[in-house]
Design brief:
By secondary structure, the chain is mostly helical. It has one domain. Helices cover 66% and strands 0% of the residues. The protein contains five helices and no strands. Helix 2 packs antiparallel against helix 3 and helix 2 runs antiparallel to helix 5 (127-146). The longest helix has 30 residues, at 28-57. The protein is elongated and about 80 Å long.
């Protein structure tokens, strides 16, 4: 085929991304995983805020053998859970938008990993709840990592 025939044959074809057709649209599976991660993050963030409020207003609810969790007081842990929970909640809600911001996925993974570490530290005070929260954090990370890179979306 000549160059002219190739141009006319490809004129009606859908442009390929490599030819500058614009950004790729995420597939249904990719957006489904992001939405799943966003919903779980909203739940985890809400639970984190509630957990922090409990630590602030009902410190006797969380008791371990030493009476303290690491080096922080229950008030310190309460504020840590409230702030981290609110951040996780806000970033989780941003993942539910129709146009997910580029920063949201990476920030979500970092925040949820940090939340899992905080829950691990909180384990002596409230073991069952901490394990449930760590499992939810791992599910969120799995959901957000499973979609791969945006450039690979078809």
């Amino acid at each position: 085929m000549t160059e002219q025939e190739l141009r006319s044959a490809s004129a009606g074809a859908t442009p390929h991304r490599a030819q500058g057709a614009g950004p790729a649209r995420p597939s249904g599976a990719a957006t489904g995983w992001v939405r799943f991660g966003g919903i779980l993050m909203a739940v985890v963030g809400g639970f984190g805020v509630i957990e922090g409020l409990y630590a602030l207003f009902l410190p006797t609810t969380f008791v371990n053998s030493n009476g303290a969790v690491l080096a922080l007081t229950y008030t310190g842990w309460g504020w840590l859970h409230i702030v981290l929970g609110a951040l996780v909640l806000v970033v989780g809600l941003s993942l539910l938008r129709s146009d997910v911001p580029g920063w949201a996925r990476g920030t979500a993974i970092v925040l949820v990993a940090l939340n899992a570490i905080v829950q691990l530290s909180w384990l002596p005070a409230y073991p069952v709840w901490s394990i449930v929260m760590i499992v939810l954090d791992v599910l969120v990370i799995g959901a957000l990592v499973a979609i791969g890179d945006r450039a690979a979306w078809s």
